[in-house]
Amino acid sequence: MSEKSNFVDQIRVFCRSGHGGAGSKHFMRTKFNPKAGPDGGDGGRGAHIILRGNKNLWTLLHLRYHKNILAENGESGSGNNSTGRSGKDIYIDVPLGTIAFDEETGEKEAEILEDGQEAILMKGGRGGLGNARFATPTNQAPEHAQPGEPGVEGYKILELKVLADVGLVGFPNAGKSTLLSVITAAKPKIADYAFTTLSPQLGMVEYRDGKSFCIADLPGIIEGAAEGRGLGHRFLRHIERNSALLFLIPADSKDHRKEFEILLNELEEYNPELLEKDIVIAISKSDMLDEELKAAISKELPAEYPHLFISSVTQKGLKELKDQLWQILNRPVD
After folding, report:
1. 8-55 pLDDT, tens per residue?
2. Residue 164 burial by Cβ neighbours in a 10 Å radius (0-12, 13-18, 19+)
3. What does the buried/exposed string (b/e) look like for 237-275 if buried means 16 or more CB atoms within 10 Å of the residue's CB?
4. How sure is the predictor about 321, in pLDDT bands with cuts at 50, 70 and 90?
5. β-sheet bridge partners, residue 157
6. Whole-model pTM?
7. d(CA 220, CA 92)
8. How many CB atoms lie within 10 A of CB 23?
């Protein structure tokens, strides 16, 4: 995905933690005793690079201009048993749902799920011990002090999986962006062509009594997305984190059940666990349907999933849809 988008869901950063300061090789000198003993202090620790969860962030956009994150080195120790100052740790604030990988090994190193949660991405080097630490009864004037340990460096991949409560699933042109623009304050780009939504759009749905929940319009799935066709895996992974899935199928679809089954199959191919989530079907653009047509469509749809008829244009059925989603999201866990 082009990084020109305001939704940046993956970013590559070069990180280097601080080197530890060297221990001091120093001897106390007094007026009457030029060799009063070793008093070299330890070096300071190099600065860590730490990820920190921030619930007010929704994207990794703010890191686009920080491609090199270089932490401060620890200072060397000095005489009089003075320890060097440690480097000042760098905190990288990231949205909840951010995962950090090492680019070279592909290993997952951290996952941020809570506000204020911290995870050390790269440890700073330890400071070296000063010569005062090496004094023994048999070696009262050690000439040895440790150098500081070097910091570590390398490229890290930060990846965001959207932490929305409800994920909107549907083919391009199912009316997902329109629905999102009506029930939330989000302003998605809307047009009459496939793949309008090239990145997940997030919006807060205001419910009764000041309550709210988060809904994400996930990019259009087409047959074969699970194999990487269309927008593929890059966006299917955002669905993994949603509590409930809202399948949007337009009223003018040629075969409502088949369309639902294709979408369901795409999710199952990608990750069968997705089908364990709560699923609601909404028939969009239904303002033109009469009761007879609604009854015919209802018969087509699988009975095990609740379904509603909605119209984003006339706002018909949207209140019932919010009620249904709220009940699912706030149902007591068994």
Report:
1. 578 899 999 999 999 999 888 777 776 678 899 999 999 999 999 998
2. buried
3. bbbbbbbbbbbbbbbebeebeebbeebbebbeebeeebe
4. very high
5. 12, 101
6. 0.62
7. 32
8. 28
In Å, how far from its chain's centre is CA 145? 43
Structure tokens at 50: 């730490």
**Look-up of token digits 């006339």:** 314
Q: Please, what's the b/e burial string for 288-322 (b: 16 or more CB within 10 A of its CB; e: otherwise)?
A: ebeeeeeeebeebbeeeeebbbbbbeeeebbeebb
Half-sphere exposure of 303 (CA within 13 A, CB side): 1
Q: Which two tokens stand for residue 193?
A: 């062509």
Contacts of 241 (CB under 8 A, 6+ apart): 97, 161, 162, 163, 164
The whole-number pLDDT of residue 125 equals 96
Q: Is 300 helix (H, G, I), strand (E, B) or coil?
A: helix
Measured distance CA(240)–CA(12) in Å, rounded: 22
Work out the burial of residue 119: count CB atoms within 10 Å of its CB; fewer than 13 is exposed, 13-18 middle, 19 or more buried. middle
The pair phi, psi for residue 10, each rounded to 5°, is -155, 135
Rounded Cα distance, 125 and 13, in Å:
20
Q: How far is CA 261 from CA 217, 255, 269, 278, in A?
A: 19, 10, 12, 15
Q: Record the tokens describing residue 25, joined without a space.
A: 């090789």
Is 75 in contact with 18 (CB distance < 8 Å)? no
| Residue 188 half-sphere exposure toward CB, CA atoms < 13 A | 27
Of 161, 163, 164, 167, give the one whose Cα is nearest residue 267: 167
Distance CA 71, CA 122 (A): 10
The Cα–Cα gap between 287 and 173 comes to 16
Q: Which amino acid is at 78?
A: S
How many other CB atoms are there within 10 angstroms of residue 65's CB atom? 6
Distant-in-sequence, close-in-space partners of 127: CB < 8 Å, separation ≥ 6: 20, 21, 22, 23, 42, 43, 44, 45, 46, 74, 77, 83, 84, 86, 148, 149
CB atoms within 10 A of CB 99: 19
